User: Fold these one by one.
Assistant:
Number 1:
Amino acid sequence: DPSVPPSGVSCSGCGAELQCRDAVAPGFLPAEKYRSLTEGPAGLAGLRGAVCQRCWLLAHHGQALQLRLPPEQHRLVVSAALRRPPRHGRGPLLLYILDLLELPDPVLPQLPALLGPDVPAAGVLVVGNKVDLLPADSPGHLGRLRRQLAAACTQAGLRGAPLVDVRLVSAKTGFGVERLISRLQSSWKCAGDVYLLGATNSGKSTLFNSLLQSDYCKSRAPDIVNRATVSPWPGTTLNLLKFPIINPTCDRIFRRQERLKEEATKTEDQLSSEERKYLNQFKKQGYLVGEVGRTFQRQKSSAVIDFDPDMLSYSVDEDPKISARKHEEREEFTHNEVKDARWCFDTPGIVKENCVLNLLTEKEVKLVLPIHAIVPRTFILKPGMVLFLAALGRVDYLQGEKPAWFSVVASNLLPVHISTLSNADDLYKKYAGQEFLKVPMGGEERMKEFPQLVPQDITLKGIGTTEAVADIKLSSAGWVAVTAHAEEKLLLRAYTPEGTTLVVREPPLLPYISAIRGARIAGTAAYRTKKPPSLVENLKTMERR
């Protein structure tokens, strides 16, 4: 209904202004639904807590609506927010979230330019997310990953603000989140606002939701602030969402530490049935699991039962009359709760350029983005053999004296196929768009519009049969770790869709990944897969790193 002006009320899932004027613009609600929420006694206030059609479909059906939203609009929202005048006399802390699987992060080098000289940021804390998806390829692998993350920050040149720290977490399973909160409360305390920044699909909104249900948030806020919409579809958050940060007084920090100490003395067998159910669920999804608890719970008053005698005074010949449902009053913050509050903001994801995800449909994105612990798949190839990762990437082993090991780290739903150089082109032409290669999907018509694969020659020198020399990162589809005999020279040719970025990552992210394998499958180039066990943080059973 174009005649209805915008509401001025934000969607509680993505932050866009709710409206019923334009179905392809952010914040759209069908006119009938919009009117049903606003025609009551509350008026526009009836929209508070509502979500737009896009967030509803993402949350309940995993379905994404295509919006008319230029990628630069996300960047403008973030840039404008960062250039707000400092509150409380101090600039904000920037919590930059990146997907560890995406290292080197394509947006991190843009951060100094995004900040600029006029952004009064007090510091940057970089958080490497999705660590739960990566298998432990050697003892101490978390320390090595953290060092690699720190090196990536240095290489990106974070000069817009001092680098406070780097942390590893899983926003989904909760691993590392309690330690992140402790770090924030001990160093940043409640000095100023905090902004969550990062590329699309880095997990910002998932971390925002975890922090909202934790000791980092004011105790009453989870009852008032809605959780952000989380989806594999890039660019879910369209505007700023926020919650008030709790002031970490000495008493609160002491009580929190006591809770964490008590939890650390438990074994898995001592957990409640509900806690064990939670852990077992996430153990199936990730290698690293940690529960995010709350020390400061708001005491909820017992429910008041409305007694309506008229409801009981009907004869056996009459149907009972259902009294009109009273309008539910939505809780709001009091003035005193927010007048001096420091806020944690979730911001729109910065769109990654030259990314294969930008070429994919909604169904294809769900197959490509890993949401469960990645099980590495290792193959031993001779010169003249080819490895396909779906129809999104290809690695040819052109020249070398000896066989080499190629370990695929990608979504478990993406197929890997081995061919020979002489058959590779025909295989791609015949099966691209079909179930055999799976992604892209849609047959010949889909492949007519999909960019062709373009090659890049790569020369590597092996460093030993137990350690990979490099990762060949096939845009955001995954990577292939290459392990070869010491001093063995390899000539490879890797392919990704035209317009996407292929990266040779040295040193590799998981250098000992080829060791995570079973026995060789007779008559094939493949090894049986092996999935390492999951570890639970902050329990006696977990190995300390």
Note: The CA atoms of residues 409 and 419 lie 19 Å apart.
Number 2:
Amino acid sequence: VSRLNCACLAQDTKSVADVVVWSTLFPVLQDETSLPSELQALRTWFQRMTLSEACRKAADSVLMPKALLEFKSYLQKQPPPCLAMERVTSNEPEEEEGSERALTEEEITAAADAWARGAEALPKPWQPQKPVLPVEGMRNVLITSALPYVNNVPHLGNIIGCVLSADTFARYCRLRNWNTLYVCGTDEYGTATETKAVEEGLTPQEICDKYNAIHTDIYHWFNISFDYFGRTTTPYQTTIAQDIFQRLLARGFLLQDTVEQLHYEEARGDQCDKCGKLINAVELKNPQCKLCRGVPVVKPTQHLFLDLPKLEKQLEPWLEQSWATGDWTANARYITRSWIRDGLKPRCITRDLKWGTPVPLDGFRDKVFYVWFDAPIGYLSITANYTDQWERWWKNPQQVELYNFMAKDNVPFHSVIFPCSLLGADDNYTLVNHLIATEYLNYENGKFSKSRGVGVFGDMAKDTGIPADIWRFYLLYLRPEGQDSAFSWSDLMIKNNSELLNNLGNFINRAGMFVCKFFGGTVPNMVLTLDDKRLLARVTLELRQYHQLLEKVRIRDALRCILSISRHGNQYIQVNEPWKRIKGDEKDRQRAGTVTGVAVNMAFLPAGISAIQGQLCIPSDCFVLSHDFTCTLPPGHRVGTVSPLFQKLENDQIETLRKRFGGGQAKQTPPTPATPITPGDPQLIQELSEEVAKQGNYVRQLKANKAEKAQIDTEVAKLLELKRQLALAEGKSPDVPVPKGKQKK
């Protein structure tokens, strides 16, 4: 502050310090009356800076309200910042930050005491009545995963982004004795269903019936533990959606407006198939029917809109409260803030279609609700088809915690549009407490594509000969929690053979086999040494870290804790060599028994694998997870027949599958534009500039995460092609630098 008596902050002439501080303070101090009189020196300095020519130009072009909106729009298109405290994620396990910390005497003693208390100290597993309903005094958890479009067969990215992630968390909740209901179903109304029906020569209902059965079979094979898997084409959907609509209408949250729309007998759709962005069809440069390629004409039509600006006053305080008390993933918060920051606009909720929930209002009875107004209401109607007491879940925010699972492209509809609909309806609806969104899972070096035969889709996974548990493990291992990740056949083989087979599976099998081979299938007596107690304490720390992570729905990192426990177990067995000690004297045989007994109890911890439960004959009363590692299988407990849990994946097998599913396409050349590039087109230049920036960021991320060279080369080639197109659009020479390693010698 004393420097303010001088002309500038750091020296007698303006410096970068003055510019940075001035630009930071400008939004707050542009109204100088906000400065108290005792800060006269600050006011004088600020006025001097503001009146300088460079600062005036900056204020006019960037910081003043009109330009600020444009600046916000630009910032919105940039990738979210990577906070210094956040760890960059990849397909690989996080590196150890250093050696394991030393255990305290208190931790060792507490772990030994918990072990000694045994299974009797565990709470009894909660057995909810059917149907599952909220219970007073219990933690009632309602879990949904984004409703999959009925006309699409889900690929591996869809499965991990929604149903498998939600399933893993639901299983955890049940093991914690939380009263849990997990519902999902197919989203069956809308444009895509009508189009698919025409393509296949079926009615929309026949298409829905066909693909609902496909989805059901896929999720059953993947062992997804829905309490109920339903669909949106039900009477309850109509009743509940129309009730919410009527309540919004009565409270003045709906608008009527004229929209210019493309009219053609077979023309359907107003959403980009590539990115899912909502667009007005009249904005398309060359609109044409997807089916017959005919050119539609523009006609005005009346539609109803949800008045989001009017609902914003209710939305923002609810969001702040939900963010403060719930667990929202970073991308969910970022995307939601972006929508709020850019200002909400009225959203059209009706469409000129036949297949959908009818609009119950005169003048609009020939229309249906737009799918993104209608589809999230499917959570409610699906629950209503499960139990006629559905309102005990969905109109009970005081007792129910709601978790929504989805990929990031679904976030705005669950964090803004759907909550606004329920807030406006004003009927004590349960709103989302925890919004869990993943990034995208890619396939090898590209995207999943059913039409091009690229990637593994749900109906194909079971034909690979690879069991569902291996698929579940690998998808959870590379779950895109912090950034996009990529499925890789070679990585699948490596992770299966090293982590699932040689680490986890090997440990569980060895522990069980020692009981059978050396002790007649009965858990032996155990006399713990200090080293054993240290192991108990170490496992307890891993177990508690596992709980902390899963309570925050960091599923991928929690899986690392399980693998770490099995690594501790393998090391424990290797150091103590029970197969040798069993042949020694009484002391050695006793030591072999202790090591075997402790190890087989550690093997019980990954309780989510049903085969372990069966082989070790674990009592049903033990199907509950606590924060302590206890002796669940005491001396005298008899195990069953122990056999290997997982299978090795061979290189020849993987290479065959890679070719079958179109992998290894890293050497594809970037696509050339379908239409010639016209130099000087400002809109095209802007679009290409944004694509270049986006692709450049992606390449930098790949390099930072040490991705495979083939993948980096592919993405660099795409970047260079985009730069070439941008140069052509700007009327410059299309020559671009040759990637390193490709230069002619």
Note: The chain has a mean pLDDT of 84.
